[in-house]
Amino acid sequence: MRKVALSTECHRGDNACVFTVTLKSSGRHFDVAAGETVLEAAQRAGIALPYSCRAGVCGSCKATLLAGRCVYPRNPPTALDAHERAHHAVLLCQAVPASDLLLEAREVTSVEDIARRQLRVRVADKWTLAPDVTGLRLLPDEGVPRLRWLPGQYLDVLLEEGRRRPFSIANGPQADGAIELHVRHVAGGGFTSWVADRLQVGDTLRIEGPLGTLVAREDSERPMVFMAGGTGFAPVKAIVEHFIELGTRREMDVYWGARNAADLYLREEVEGWAARLPNLRFHPVLSEPDQAQCPGLREGLVHEAVLADHPDLSGHDVYMSGPPAMVDAARHRFTDAGLPDDRLYYDSFDYAPDVLAQIMAGRAGLHP
Ligand SMILES: Cc1cc2nc3c(=O)[nH]c(=O)nc-3n(C[C@H](O)[C@H](O)[C@H](O)COP(=O)(O)OP(=O)(O)OC[C@H]3O[C@@H](n4cnc5c(N)ncnc54)[C@H](O)[C@@H]3O)c2cc1C
Ligand code: FES
């Protein structure tokens, strides 16, 4: 690793203050422009660091600050608890350097080869997966090259005034470029209400992708636990299908938590995987079960079911995706059960960064 001389001075004399961030494990380094977050600057430099919500709430971009100082001028780092702050944890999606930085951060080099781009897609199919979940099949618009992505990644749907809405891609790359989304209708949600009520086959959308670092880690022989909550099944489906295609012999336990049986909208498909593959087991878990519809199904919270079956997670790789409350509870409980931080891969289905910023500003009595 190159020797790091940290500076607290801007490297430029004008207003465009630049600091250098060095990643301890690889020795790679990149410059951060004035006001930029570490994550934004790393992405501009083609270096993939983990992230999910991009709003400071999910904790997936957590890293350790070994030297230097950063500030949080956008959103406060709500995902860090007092213990993590005391141990110099920082959230890369919000941290803006106030000096050169030396960081211990996980790099996800597998996603670095695919540049993110914007494209127009057409709605080729729209169907009802569950009472409040819509399936969408999107195809690149005429003459537009297809999107490339890794199974598990997500895309942003681009709306007016720079607003974006993130959705996981529920399939792996296809020859015709088809992208499958599972969109849950959020009460009071502008975009998801429009998808449920007004979006029609033949309409076009602008998207940007691929995004995110929830992707298959193939450099491991460990057994895998997959845990999805609701439409958090979308990226889990893409990653499990990828491992099945690879013919993996690793043990796979797929947990899917939902309120009731209707919300397990592709249950037969997962039961089919379990019936075919001796190394894959399916564990549906319902939090509000209707015993008439689903006798015998497991009841409770899905992460509790994982822990009941795997009280020691120290030998596993865990992939999870779904509602923020589930992800937040699970990430603490799973690490308490021995799972190392760097073997927990997740996306937290938070609202879009602009909405979270408004909500947080509202809570603080501020205007965004
Ligand atoms: C990485 C990632 C992947 C995701 N993948 C999926 C997926 O595959 N499938 C899926 O269904 N979802 C997914 N989500 C969640 C999805 O992005 C959100 O449900 C979506 O952005 C909601 O958009 P909306 O325009 O309908 O709602 P919004 O209009 O953004 O509103 C969301 C909620 O916030 C409330 N709200 C809005 N503004 C304010 C305010 N100022 N103060 C207080 N409350 C407010 C609204 O009433 C509503 O309840 C993902 C999220 C992330 C981060
Ligand atoms: S807290 Fe940074 S990506 Fe979620």
From TrEMBL:
PROSITE patterns: 2FE2S_FER_1, 2FE2S_FER_2, FAD_FR. Signal peptide: none annotated. Its cofactor is [2Fe-2S] cluster. Pfam families: FAD_binding_6, Fer2, NAD_binding_1. InterPro entries: 2Fe-2S_ferredoxin-like_sf, 2Fe-2S_ferredoxin-type, 2Fe2S_fd_BS, Beta-grasp_dom_sf, Cbr1-like_FAD-bd_dom, FAD-bd_FR_type, Flavoprot_Pyr_Nucl_cyt_Rdtase, FNR_nucleotide-bd. Residues 19-109 form the 2Fe-2S ferredoxin-type domain. One of its GO terms (molecular function) is 2 iron, 2 sulfur cluster binding. Residues 116-217 form the FAD-binding FR-type domain. This is CDP-4-dehydro-6-deoxyglucose reductase. It comes from Rhodanobacter glycinis. The lineage of its organism: Bacteria, Pseudomonadati, Pseudomonadota, Gammaproteobacteria, Lysobacterales.
